[in-house]
Amino acid sequence: MNFLFSHRNFPAQFKHILNELSKDSSNKIVFLTGTENAVEIKGVRKIAYKLKRKVSRDCHRYLKQYEETIIDNYDLKELLPRHIEMIKNTGLKK
User: Fold this and answer.
1) What is the pTM assigned to this prediction?
2) Whose CA is closest to 33, among 4, 55, 54?
3) Residues pairing with 30 in the sheet
4) Do 9 and 37 meet the contact criterion of CB atoms below 8 Å apart?
5) Number of C-beta neighbours around residue 34 at 10 A
6) Which of 40, 52, 66, 91 suits 8 as a labelling partner, its CA being 20 to 30 A distant?
7) Which segments of the chain does DSSP mark as H helices, in order?
8) Comparing 65 with 29, which gets the higher pLDDT?
9) What is the pLDDT of residues 49-79, one digit of tens each?
10) What is the strand order of the sheet 44-48 is part of?
11) 50 touches 8 (CB < 8 A)
């Protein structure tokens, strides 16, 4: 089965499900993330993307998380078409 995850942090709340899914070698798992870290999960192909900008310094601290989420989703929408070939090269298909 094919699985495509997208979250700005890797592995985030998906750590346990990724570990379970990766036990079946017939599963193809790709994870798009804005985090470049050393965390690796065997059987999971991690594709990191870079955001175009960060939250401005004058953003109110209560709004910072929301602003980060908006930037992340907007940038991912812009970056996704460029990553389609990378995703296809992992073996994922419709």
Assistant:
1) 0.72
2) 4
3) 4, 45
4) no
5) 19
6) 91
7) 15-21, 64-89
8) 29
9) 877 778 889 989 999 888 887 877 776 777 7
10) 2-6, 28-33, 44-48
11) no
